[in-house]
Write the structure tokens for this entry.
Amino acid sequence: MIPTIRNGLEAASHNLSVVSHNIANAGSNGFKKSRADFYDTYGVGLGSLPGIDLGQGARTDGPRRLHSQGSLKPSASELDIAISGLGMFVTTKADDANPVVFTRDGSFRLEDDGRVVTWDGRSLIDSEGQPIYIPIQRTDENGNRQLLTAVNISIAGQIEAVYGTAVPNKSAAPSEIVDLGAIALARFGNVGALKSIGSGQFVTTEKSGLPQLGIAGQANFGDIQSGNLEMSNINMTDELTKMMQAQQAYSASSRLLQAAVDMSKRLIG
């Protein structure tokens, strides 16, 4: 009896840990919640009838990541981008333990060298597999220095940079629009098998398979929404309900375990 109760106690504790992790990350951009999965265990007891399974409680099967869509929140930055539908952003960092990482967190920024990067300096990749650069300044055909004035990103992920003259009151060509390519998106045959490395970032595993690359709006990939961020896919009401259920299960298992221990002591003593 005691091993069965102990299994139930461990299962409830694991469920509490998963739900607490979800709640703690409810405000993180692009965070994907996890679900605690369990399976029944059986054993054969002395004198049991053939074909009769004796329950030994539940065992944890590891948390399962749920990659459902989170709600979109408007942002003031053109480089805050969200995916409405299927796909993940591809980022890279050559000197990192994980050179290629996938994420739904679209809070990008522009570095001084023109690279579009994540919060930890990973470069966003274009449809040609190269890091995306948006030069802060350039020189036009007439040798005039131009500064970046705006960035436009279409629902297909096409990036256009707008440049204007850097010399006030000078008669020069009007603003120029430069096409800088399209943002790459990735999808997986088994996205739930991706391995989380924290902060909404994922790497491939043998079970997830290799990524299929494409661009927004094609081959079932979702659309790019510039000026928006995807929130976590957590429903706080659901998570708080699950936490209360897990706490009740843990408390009940604790009382059962104490009762079983007391009963054993009386029988032995």
Q: What stands out?
A: The helical segments are 2-24, 236-268. Residues 196 and 202 are 4 Å apart (CA to CA).
